[in-house]
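Please review this one:
***
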Amino acid sequence: MLSFLVLIPIILFLLYLGLIFESTGLLLLGFAAALFGVLSFFVLLWLRTKVRVELRIPIRMAEIDRPFGIQYEIHNDAFIPLKKISVGLKYSELRSRKWESARQVLRDVPKGTSMKAGRLRVGRAGYFEFLTAKTRVYDPFGIFFMSLKKKGIAHAMVLPRIEEVPVRLGEAVKHFYGEAMTYDELSPGHDPSEIFDVREFRDGDKLQRVHWKLSARMDELMVKENALPKTCPILIFMPEGDLEAQGILDYVTSLSFTLMDLKCGHYVIWHSVSRNDLLRVRVDDEESFYFAITAYLQDGAAGSPYDRLERYREKYRGEPFLHGIVADGEGRISLDGEPFEKVKDLPGELLLK
């Protein structure tokens, strides 16, 4: 509608000049502009009811600062192709609701249903909602436009930057043992409550470990190997609230990835919005790492009214750990209940004894 408001003073100015100078040419030009504007107005009113734009994000995961693909499914039920459609995009991380905007122009839209592609770069991590706002359909000459009423919506996840964090693990972390509900599937251990495997007797094996029933059936001595509990010596509490303090999310995500790379199992923990409680995901490999990070970003991390480290001890009483790393929404972390420090002020190497 704004484009027509610009046309009105132009028409009036042409008519005024035509009357002042008694110029038939200027008067005809003014009337022609008025007729053209009226025709374009009614054509656009009609096109507005015949055109619909749906927003699609085929791959709903992207890396920060790298462009990802957006698709627009355009339904043009008019009998004429469109010169162009201008799509206004609004997007916001779901925690902050601070909207940013972009505009993309789609040209030469044919009749029927068609797909047009666009690219967008998002400069921070999080779970984002995308809206088509003020999508403009232009007249056949590409001069005047009207905004479409219906808005499209889509969601996508932007992952934080992952870089190696200097970490040194002490012997206590490397050989940590404690009660656990899960066991290592590749290595035997020393938990007599769970059997890892049964094998033939070897020199040096203790008679207490002989599986007597199976030995009688196999007619040779068989020995039980105990399981190794998959305990977690380290807890990482993800930042809560708005993710504006970008550095802290990059840091704790990179720390989790580094620990995984060092074969150090750990828990990624956050205060879940959907459950209103602490939620944890064990990270041992890349699959569990990406599952934990995407679950955290999608679920949201509400501000908790309690000390998360103490709440964890209360909820998982009896499960020991060595280190609790707590991140807040202000770019700071706390190690084992110590005062919070800015990530940029941390020593070059994080020592986890």
The chain has a mean pLDDT of 80.
